[in-house]
Specification:
The protein has 280 residues and is of the alpha/beta class. The protein has two domains: 87 residues, Rossmann fold (3-Layer(aba) Sandwich), CATH 3.40.50.10860; 122 residues, Rossmann fold (3-Layer(aba) Sandwich). 42% of the residues lie in helices and 16% in strands. It is built from ten helices and ten strands. The protein has a five-stranded parallel β-sheet. It is globular, with a radius of gyration of 19 Å.
Amino acid sequence: MILDGKSLAAQIEQELKGRVQAVVQKTGGKVPALATILVGDDLSSATYVKMKGNACKRVGLESLPVLLPASTTTEELLGKIKELNENPLVRGILLQHPVPKQIDERKCFDAISLEKDVDGVTSLGFGLMSMGEKAYGSATPKGIISLLEHYKIPLEGKHAVVVGRSAILGKPMAAMLLNKNCTVTICHSKTQNLPHIIEQADIIVGAVGIPEFIKTQWLKNGAVAIDAGYHNKDGGAVGDIQKESLSDKCSAYTPVPGGVGPMTIATLIQQTVEASEMFF
């Protein structure tokens, strides 16, 4: 089974249009906005920000792009986040990762108001989510959970192996799967005997950020493969999991592209709409 994130994301956007219209009607014509902060001129980051802006337009939200030079300091970025926190029409704030090295990224993430943390990047939001409390989840892992649930992939009691431990993907992914009653193992690029651990996984999540790092032969027959990676290689797209023979080995898998990526954006927009409904 191909876990088609592109088609599910389109369904989610269709449903969100009516909810946005209801909010705008309630506010007397004021359109809530998602602010996207891009520091520097990284081409990949600029592409992602543009895609998020286009998704806002498709559902009727306002997109507020904030472009800052690569020389921006932590204090300058904190000042811009404070300004957006205080803007009542801005209901979601996204700080595009990564930021230039001179910026304290964690400090800036944590400056985002919890009620506007629609990308699920604050320490407080992560803590609440991991405890099973109400919070906006990190967009990519939350999108993955939505995809698994949509396709009715059994989670309870399953052994999920997450390869990757980043603060906005691997760690929240593990916490969300644990909250769904999976037994979770977290691995990374320095894990010993990695193939042996992966071959025990009912569900494998590739989130290590290295092209085709996880080999198809390591997966057990019938496993569910979720690939959160995206890399350009030889003019095509590959993920963190080797594509070769994946359809023969797995009972279900996400394609690259068209799997996890569209769900990340759809989740971000969905949580911005939720934040708007909570406020207005």
